[in-house]
Amino acid sequence: MLMKPKYERVLEPTDTWAIFDVATGEPASIGDRLMIGLSESESEELFATLNAAAKSKNKRSAA
């Protein structure tokens, strides 16, 4: 079964990137830092990290 990603990457009108939680529509955060105003490469790396962590958490909770 394919799971939808927990996060999505969005190009903002300011030509920066943001990562949003798909379920809440709110910007994702790591610690105190909101995932907004990111460079493209930064957003790609953080997007992959956040979705991998969410996928890992779902696997543990399903076991």
Q: What are the SSEs and their pairings?
A:
Elements: E1 7-11, E2 17-21, E3 29-30, E4 33-34, H1 40-62
Antiparallel strand pairs: 1-2, 3-4
Could you list some keywords that capture this structure?
single chain, 63 residues, alpha+beta, two-stranded antiparallel sheet, 22% strand
How does this structure look, described?
- The longest helix is centred in the C-terminal third of the chain and has 23 residues, at 40-62.
- This protein has one helix at 40-62, and strands at residues 7-11, 17-21, 29-30, 33-34.
- The strands form two sheets. The chain has a two-stranded antiparallel sheet with strand order 1-2. It has a two-stranded antiparallel ribbon with strand order 3-4.
- With 63 residues, the protein is of the alpha+beta class.
- Strand 3 (29-30) and strand 4 (33-34) form a beta hairpin.
- Helix content is 37%, strand content 22%.
- The two termini are 15 Å apart.
- The mean pLDDT is 89.
- The protein has one domain (7-62).
Oligomer classification:
single chain
Q: How many structurally independent domains? A: 1
Helix content: 25-40%
Radius of gyration: 12 Å
- Spatial order of the strands forming the largest sheet: 1-2
Task: Kindly name the structural category.
Answer: alpha+beta
Number of strands: 4
Pattern of helices and strands = EEEEH
**If helices are DSSP runs of H or I spanning 4 or more residues, what is the number of helices?**
1
Q: What percentage of the residues does DSSP assign to strands (E)?
A: 15-25%
Described by the principal axes of the CA atoms, the overall outline is globular
Largest sheet: 2 strands, antiparallel
Q: What does the average pLDDT come to?
A: 89
Poorly predicted sequence stretches spanning 5 or more consecutive residues = none
End-to-end separation in angstroms reads 15 Å
